[in-house]
Amino acid sequence: MNHEIFSGTHYNIGRQWGQKLAQRNVSLLSQIPFPLSEETGNFASACLPVYQKFFPEILDEIQGVADGQGCSPEKLRTLLFSLYSIAPGANCSCFALSGKGQILLGRNSDFFSELKEQNMNVIYDVPAASQGFTANTTSFIQMEDGVNRLGLAVGLTSVLPRRIKPGMNAGLLLRFFLEKCRNVDDVLQSIAKIPISSSQTFTAADPSGRIALIECSSEHVSVSSTPLPQNFLCAVNSFHMSPMDSLQKAAGEEWFSERRYRTMRDSLIKGRVTDASSAQKLLSGEHGFLSHTTSL
User: Fold this and answer.
1) % of the chain beyond a pLDDT of 90
2) 252: pLDDT confidence band, cut at 50, 70 and 90?
3) Domains in the chain, ordered, with CATH?
4) Most buried among 11, 82, 170, 290, by the most CB within 10 A?
5) What is the pLDDT of residue 295?
6) What mean pLDDT is reported for the chain?
7) 167 vs 117: which has the higher pLDDT
8) Virtual CA dihedral for 57, 60, 64, 65, nearest 10 degrees?
9) CA–CA separation, 71 vs 130, rounded Å?
């Protein structure tokens, strides 16, 4: 995994990132493990007005990356805006635990192995209108889990969509939450007003001890949040709330979603996760199958 620290305007950060990759002879557009079709291009164009309205800074960053790479910003937008909607998503597991004076959010990710050399942990120091954050990405610009300077932590899992509509996708929504939200309540308010293109879950926690699980798609949003009958929430690549369970395509058996879900729930119910060390044991598969590196 690469580690980078970026500071400045969104455009300058994007240009820094694009140039750093170019200096390592990495061309983003040559690393894409799926085709950029006419369909994905048309869909990205339809999504563009949503980003212009709700998150224009991200368009500046995409332009910066394109300039640093010497490539087309339109193609980068096509790649980023189609992720999770048309292009395949990651096989992820995520949980939040709150109680006994501590809050934990844990996540692991099985994504494209072709991109592992470009996987990044980043620290962003952005202008005052946004929150600085640290986050992880298997792609670029979009983020999959992270925590901002106010202690808001969010992780995502992708879900196969039944329908897609122009909007913001999972990774860029999570990036928006980290930059623009102060706490879990802000996340819930944001997800209620921003058009959504993809299907996914977001698990969120903040320093107050508040945790929430959001299951959402282009069709509907469902939320489970504290106070809860138990002190945890968990998510995989499928919906479990009503009516979300009817708004998804069935994931293939190779995703092992329900098997991973049972592993997490069983471990959390039995109190096996009490601190960061025991959370790492759960995520690494010591308590049952939770990733492709775990023996089947």
Assistant:
1) 72
2) low
3) 11-110+140-296 (3.60.60)
4) 170
5) 42
6) 91
7) 167
8) 70
9) 27
DSSP 33: S
DSSP state, 238? B
Query: Residues, the chain, total?
Result: 296
The encoded tokens of residue 55 equal 């998150």
Q: Which two tokens stand for residue 1?
A: 């995994």
- 242 pLDDT above the threshold of 90: no
Rounded to an integer, what distance in angstroms lies between the CA atom of residue 78 and that of residue 62? 11
Q: For strands 211-216 and 221-225, give the pairing.
A: antiparallel
List pLDDT tens digits, range 104-162. Answer: 999 988 665 666 666 789 999 998 889 999 999 988 899 999 999 999 999 999 999 98
Residue 158, both tokens: 């992708």
Which contiguous run of DSSP H or E holds residue 135? Answer: strand 133-137
In this structure, are strands 211-216 and 199-205 parallel, antiparallel, or unpaired? antiparallel
Q: Higher pLDDT residue, 232 or 111?
A: 232
CA dist., res. 248 & res. 17, Å (int): 35
Q: Which two tokens stand for residue 98?
A: 């709150």
Adjacent-strand bridge partners of 238: 236
Looking from the CA of 71 toward its CB, the CA atoms found within 13 Å total 21
User: Which residue's entry shows tokens 């309205």?
Assistant: 53
Which runs of E-coded beta strand occur in 166-255? Answer: 199-205, 211-216, 221-225, 232-235
